[in-house]
Amino acid sequence: SQQGEEDPQALSIQEGENATMNCSYKTSINNLQWYRQNSGRGLVHLILIRSNEREKHSGRLRVTLDTSKKSSSLLITASRAADTASYFCATDVFGQNFVFGPGTRLSVLP
Amino acid sequence: DADVTQTPRNRITKTGKRIMLECSQTKGHDRMYWYRQDPGLGLRLIYYSFDVKDINKGEISDGYSVSRQAQAKFSLSLESAIPNQTALYFCATGLGGSTDTQYFGPGTRLTVL
Predict the structure, then answer these.
(1) Is the dihedral of CA B20, B24, B30, B31 positive or negative?
(2) Which residues in A have their CB inside 8 Å of a CB on B?
């Protein structure tokens, strides 16, 4: 498996529901970040969580990090159709570059 | 105006042709990156540069070369394009540091026939 790997690969929910996606990684990290990509466009940074943090919030986003399990989750609450996009986790490994996972495709149905 | 721009946005070319993709940034960042994206594989790093005199190979540099003409400009070249280089290419910039984040351009969709 890759350093950063999201789960599930695809997720379809109704507007108003919460969406949860997970990221697992293999080596120790400096921080972990989540990015969003609208179809065919550049990635946009959403949130960063440092290795010594366990939870972080930004608007409707909640990110958790469990370094003992080498995993992170991104929760989007009260989803909207405009949240439809692909979501990527990126791990910042000490002394190396970012490693992006393959992403989770989220579809929010109106 | 966009902080990170890429030209061209779309390009169709033939096998064996030399192609250059250009990236410019107004963010004042020292670090610049080139990634390619293929369906289901996420982003893979091709080359990166931490300043004008520092160029490094990434995960998949074979068949590619780069030039950092200035702090603001980082070009990616395909010396002899082949069909499996058909992909979406992204340029990104970053400041570096322990909380570095990346700022992406809009992408170049390249098709090699």
Answers:
(1) negative
(2) 2, 4, 9, 30-31, 33, 35, 40-45, 48, 50, 88, 90, 92, 97-98, 100-103
